[in-house]
Design a protein that fits this description.
This protein is mainly alpha-helical and 156 residues long. The protein has a single domain, classed as Ankyrin repeat-containing domain (Serine Threonine Protein Phosphatase 5, Tetratricopeptide repeat), CATH 1.25.40.20. It contains 10 helices and no strands. Helix 6 packs parallel to helix 8 and helix 9 packs antiparallel against helix 10. The protein is globular, with a radius of gyration of 15 Å.
């Protein structure tokens, strides 16, 4: 994992941005940082990057969703990124699960506009609505419900 991605995962946005000043960003870093100019250059040069997978099987759209890159998310889906891409890793999430986990309302709305399944479960069975409710995010929960998200029956 690059220094930029490590900093973002630690929640150190300042360190990530400092590192990005001297780096040639790849598609995952550009999406994570919301650098739409660089992301646009990369996608223009190689449109298949919209569907590329990182070493841990996330797409750039997963990263844009989690790290709050609404413009990057929109650019990616407009270039063919799958709003329902499943990351086949320990987390087993879709981009909408990532947006819900991080409370990214604008990104969630963009994903839903582009066909994201509001009921798509993560590997553990939790849906974006489950996560929004667990986090007390009523605004996101309402957005998801308005797009057809259904509450799971209580576990017994």
């Amino acid at each position: 994992m690059s220094e930029i991605m490590q900093a973002l995962h630690r929640g150190d946005d300042d360190a990530a941005r400092r590192s990005a000043e001297t780096a040639e960003l790849d598609v995952f870093e550009a999406a994570s940082l919301g650098d739409v100019a660089r992301l646009g250059e990369l996608l223009a040069a190689d449109p298949t990057l919209a569907e590329a997978r990182s070493d841990d099987d996330f797409t750039a759209l997963h990263y844009a969703a989690f790290f709050d890159g609404p413009q990057a998310a929109r650019l990616l889906v407009e270039h063919g990124a799958d709003a329902n891409a499943f990351a086949d890793n320990d987390l087993g999430v879709h981009p909408l699960n990532s947006a819900a986990a991080a409370g990214r309302h604008e990104v969630a709305a963009i994903l839903l506009e582009h066909g994201a399944d509001p009921n798509a479960p993560a590997r553990g069975g939790f849906t974006p609505l489950d996560v929004a409710c667990e986090n007390g995010d009523e605004k996101l929960a309402e957005l998801l419900r308005s797009q057809g998200a259904q509450a799971r029956p209580p576990r017994t």
